[in-house]
Amino acid sequence: MYNIYRDEDYKWIKELMLYPQTLEKNLSYFKDTSQIAIPEDPIEKVIFQDKAKKAIRKVAQNRGHLLLVGKPGTGKSMLADMFNYVIDKSLGDYIRPRESIVAYPGKDQNHMRVAYATPEKIENHILMVNQAIEAVKNSIEEFSLDTQINSVKKVKNILLWITALSIITGIFFPPAFVITGLSGLGAIFMFIQENNHRVQEKIQQETFSSKSANVKHITDTVPEILYDPRKDTNLMIRISEPSSKNMKGGFRHDPYQSGNLHTPIHKRAYLGAHAKAPIIYIDELKTLIKEGYMSSLLEIMQNKKYILEGGRNTGSGAADMSENYLKADNIIIACCNHDTLNYLQDEGDGAFLSRIEDKGEIVNMESSVNETKENIAQVAQYIKQEIENLDIEFKNTWGKVMEKEGHMGVRRRSEQIYGKRLPLDYQLKVREFSRNAVAEIVKELRCRSADGKLSCILRPVNGIIKTAELEAIVENSQLVEPQHIRNAIGEHLSIEGAISREITEHKKDLKKYITSMTDSIGYVVGLAVIRSKSSGQMFGQPLPIHCQINAGGSDVITAPGKIGEIAKAAAENVRASIKRLLHNVGAPYAGYEMHIEYIQAHDGVEGDSASVAMNVGLISDYIQQPVSQKFGITGSLTGEIILPVGGVTEKVRSVMDIDLTMEGACIPWQNKHDIEPLLVNMEFEYIQKEDVPGIRLYRTEGKKDPFDIYFCKTKYNAYRILMGVSKEEVEDRITERSKRDLEFVQNIKRNQK
Predict the structure, then answer these.
(1) In 2-118, which residue ranges form alpha helices assigned H by DSSP?
(2) Are 575 and 647 a contacting pair, CB within 8 Å?
(3) 51-85 burial code (b ≥16 CB/10 A, e <16)
(4) Tens of pLDDT along 610-668?
(5) Could you tell me the residue ranges of all domains in the chain?
(6) 66-69 and 331-336 as β-strands: parallel, antiparallel, unpaired?
């Protein structure tokens, strides 16, 4: 009898069942997280990333640059903050700027100069200049035409007296009226002249009503402080969208561009991160590339200085610039993903990466780490840190309510939030995690990775921890228990997880319908995953597949729908595998048309993890043997061997829902360690069907609702589990079918003649 398993293989499967005990032993040093200590060294608060932490200490020692490459949620931003903290505590007093940056007019209205000096010296100089201007301003007399007005007024009055006297004289001596006319005209002229002087005086007084306007040309020369180290003490500036505007600085728009009102260039200048901060943290290099700032950054990193320019193509500020250089000796801390890293390697022959490596280090953030005792302890430490962070959030949000109204006030207000009555002894305070709850988090990190490793993408886990905490608080539980974690995982799904849940709900009825309407020949339940773009987490789902294989003159394979290149290649591989099997058993080959359909896979299928499922479906149709619809299967088929695939833990979890009516799954032998996390906080036992080893999980307490997982090395192991036929029986029935098909094809050809 054909048996590919060795005695050691069965022993290894039984050793898998020791995983919960091993995990319990690794967590035995505490009963709950109240016994967990948080390290004082801030860098050690970032877990798993030992390589990155070592690089941070080295770069901090040498004052170099650092590029962190990895997926979101692995701790890049937290490490950057820790780097800032370490530099501040160790070298902060020496690298923190001590000089103010001051700007003053240059050679013309489009140029300015910058100078560096101590804040006290600059303030004293500006104070002295302002005092001198104030003295000049106070010495300026108000504009007046009183002298001219008084002289004109005096002549006007004389002429009026002459006019009056000439009128009296004219009564007795008529020729005197000539003098009356002349003096009257003169008086009128003097009156007009007086009014002209008064209007001119008023206009001049209104135009120069402020003494500041009189000295504006002097005040425009007063230096402008662009940076004061006493007011801005941060060593690091975080930049999310690096551009010339926020990295270098520039010149603001001048709304008063004409006459005597224009704003001088040095009073419109502002500085960016290069001039103000010793450390610049670029949160995402992809935005730097998008903004086109890479060439400027490379030049500044090389020269450690730059000219401040307007940055506008037209309008105010287009021609503005500084005459001398600004200092820019910055430490660059940057983050990016692997796609951006590939671009940086090609862009400018990797010039930016070369700058980083010249004075620093490029660190690839770990996306997963081995499940060692030390790393498990770090998970417990991380949970304790999140508990303390949540406690701080509670105090910041509810602290004043607690002071004024006590626990009763908090309970009353919380009832308004939850919309239900809460226990009388309800208290809004954090709960510690029990040991089993910590084990559940370790289990979840294992499920989100593969190859017996823990996922390093922790940001999504933060939400699970907080949700479990709030559920334990509402229930007034003393500790956070595993059930709280499981409920939180069900609630805290990414958009891809929610979509996967909806698809799975739909496929429950679809699977039941297919099972009831067919004889299950050619139908097989494959297992697929949806990957979250934000967190990298995978969500499993069943993938019903229908296969047909018919004798025909041509040798083709058809897989309709949105099928990716890898899936197409897997289908071709399955065809080659079947042809090879026919050759090995000496069966005559008649030429076959193979049809593969992924049932209602509207979004398409990519990958080769369904290749063994396709093979089972085609063989089932070929030998007319029903496939058990109670079992799912996944694996990559190469010849006879089933090779490992990704996401096996999530694939199996997706079909363990009792409502789906699944009873088990077949997975590749090399994926056996992916089953270990499913054993945590569950009952299980060793099973074996013929020669194929497996583990039976009980989904409900009391050893009810069993779910069998079998570890298959070859496709024949899968045939045994899913169709109940042996290798010899499959080969015999294939030979019989191929002979009938060959005879059928030959008869058709004879009839055509």
Answers:
(1) 7-16, 19-26, 50-62, 76-95
(2) no
(3) ebbebbeebbeebbbbbbbbbbbbbbbbbbbbbbb
(4) 788 888 888 898 889 999 988 999 998 887 889 998 888 888 888 888 888 889 999 99
(5) 31-39+368-491, 81-108+234-364, 144-207, 497-752
(6) parallel
Dihedral of CA atoms 671, 530, 709, 6 in degrees, nearest 10, equals -20
**CB neighbour class for 114 (10 Å; exposed up to 12, middle 13-18, buried from 19):** buried
Gyration radius (Cα) of the chain, Å: 42
Which residue stretches of the chain have pLDDT < 50? Answer: 495-497, 500
Q: Is the dihedral of CA 167, 171, 176, 181 positive or negative?
A: positive
**Of 44, 42, 50, 92, nearest in space to 331 by CA:** 92
Q: For residue 26, which of 375, 385, 425 has the smallest C-alpha distance?
A: 375
pTM, to two decimals: 0.74
Contact assessment for residue 599 and residue 561, using Cβ atoms and an 8 Å cutoff = no
Cα torsion angle, 597, 599, 600, 602, sign: negative
Decide: 508 and 492 in contact? Cβ < 8 Å.
no
Q: In what order do the strands lie in the sheet with 331-336?
A: 236-239, 279-282, 331-336, 66-69, 361-364
Among residues 663, 740, 741, the alpha carbon closest in space to that of 707 is found at 663
Sign of the Cα pseudo-torsion (689, 693, 699, 700, in order) = positive
Cβ neighbour number for residue 618 with a 10 Å cutoff: 26
What whole-number distance in Å separates Cα of residue 134 and Cα of residue 140? 10
> Which architecture characterizes domain 81-108+234-364 according to CATH?
3-Layer(aba) Sandwich (3.40)
- Tell me which fold the domain 497-752 belongs to: Ribosomal Protein S5; domain 2 (3.30.230)
Reading the block at residue 635, the tokens are: 């694996």
The region, left, alpha or beta by phi > 0 then psi within -120 to 50, assigned to residue 695 is beta
pLDDT in tens, 652-701: 888 888 888 889 999 999 999 889 888 888 899 999 998 999 999 998 88
CA–CA distance, 684 with 693 (Å, rounded to integer): 14
**Domain 31-39+368-491 identical in fold to domain 497-752:** no
- Give the residue carrying structure tokens 């940086």: 344
Q: How far is CA 124 from the centre of its chain?
A: 47
The reported pLDDT for the residue numbered 258 is 56
593: left (phi over 0), alpha (psi -120 to 50) or beta: beta
Tokens of 744: 């059928």
CATH number of 31-39+368-491: 1.10.8.60
Please tell me the distance from the alpha carbon of residue 267 to that of residue 277, in angstroms, as a whole number.
21
